[in-house]
Amino acid sequence: MTDDTPRHSERKIDRKMLELLVCPVTKTTLEYDAARQELVSRVAKLAYPIRDGIPIMLADEARKLDD
């Protein structure tokens, strides 16, 4: 029995969905970081995690970016 489910790091995010998402804090565009599985807001200096292919768009769950 084989598992054809993509591993966490191999999951792809729908580009059309990314175009619709904005930072909930600043309402600015986000950058997709495939290596870290995060959506990054350079303006807010926050990185929102993507878990099981689902963006977690909560400021409380976001990682703060260093300057």
UniProtKB/TrEMBL annotation:
One Pfam family hit: Trm112p
GO CC, alphabetical: cytosol
Gene3D superfamilies reported for this sequence: 2.20.25.10
PANTHER family from the UniProt entry: PROTEIN PREY, MITOCHONDRIAL, ZGC:162634
Assigned protein family: Belongs to the UPF0434 family.
Name of the protein: UPF0434 protein GWI72_18990
